[in-house]
Amino acid sequence: GLRPYLYQKFPIQKLETKINALLPLEKMGLSLDSDGAELRWARIVCALALIFALLGYTVEGSLFAHVEARPFWYGALIPIDFLLGASFCGLSWILAAGIITYKVKGEEIPSKLKDLFYEMAEILALLLSVGLLFTAYKMGHGLFEPVKAKTIMLFLNGPFSRAFWMFEIGIGLVLPILILLYAARRKKIAGILIASVMVLAGYFVKRYDFVVASQVYPLIKKQHPLSSYVPTFMEVLLISGIIGAILLTYTLGVKFLPLKEGESYHAL
């Protein structure tokens, strides 16, 4: 199988020696041979991964924000919206994936990890509260801009109102906040899992409506006053493939990487 090759050491010692000589790792206390080096490096890598992940999604929002042809996309609020979405969706994914992993494997969640989940649930509730206030400001501010008002009314009292109020606001923000606060106080892991899945489902609908509703009003007046969009079969397959690839990558990581406290590559 492929497992023996995952931890095979390749002849790159010379390259590592040169890199270590150029970097002041010893002075920074990050020498690979020092005690606790793996933990320190893990913290650094995780911090960098968090920063670049948030920046990446914010840049994606900036691409929409520069499209002047679509008024609802254009503006400085969109990158902030994407940044907030990336923060609480990422936290929801970590909570949901962590809890489901232990449930599927039939293992008891360690007490320390449970306490961490409860703290993360409170942080997620705070982020969702900020997201709710930001959504109210974004929609309210847009109503005073004539070029955006028609599109926003599609969400508030139009064809997209059910998806907006039920999924984006209800399932994606309000209900998860209440469930997370209750679950964190009552120490209910199941409540955290349910709320995390609700956040992910609500945000998926939000991004779908964000793309579709912004293109409802055509730029050419001779076109139909209201257009519609249904995903094609290939688009459904593409999204399904991306989700499947993410789940497969996570499954392989859980299976082969030492994710539990006390495990190491040598133990595998």
Would you mind describing this structure in some detail?
The structure is a single chain. The chain is globular, with a radius of gyration of 23 Å. The longest helix is centred in the middle third of the chain and has 33 residues, at 111-143. Helix 5 runs antiparallel to helix 9 (189-213) and helix 8 (161-186) runs antiparallel to helix 9. The two termini are 14 Å apart. By secondary structure, the protein is mainly α. The mean pLDDT is 81. The protein has helices spanning 3-6, 13-22, 25-28, 37-65, 77-105, 111-143, 146-157, 161-186, 189-213, 233-256. 73% of the residues lie in helices and 0% in strands. It folds into 2 domains: 59-219; 230-263.
Order of helices and strands: HHHHHHHHHH
| Shape, per Cα inertia axes | globular
As a percent range, the share of strand residues is under 5%
Number of domain units = 2
Structural class: mainly alpha
Gap between N and C termini: 14 Å
Taking all Cα atoms into account, the compactness measure Rg is 23 Å
Largest sheet: none
Low-pLDDT ranges: none
Q: Could you estimate the helical fraction of the residues in percent?
A: over 70%
Overall pLDDT score: 81
Oligomer: single chain
User: How many strand elements?
Assistant: 0
* Number of contiguous helices: 10
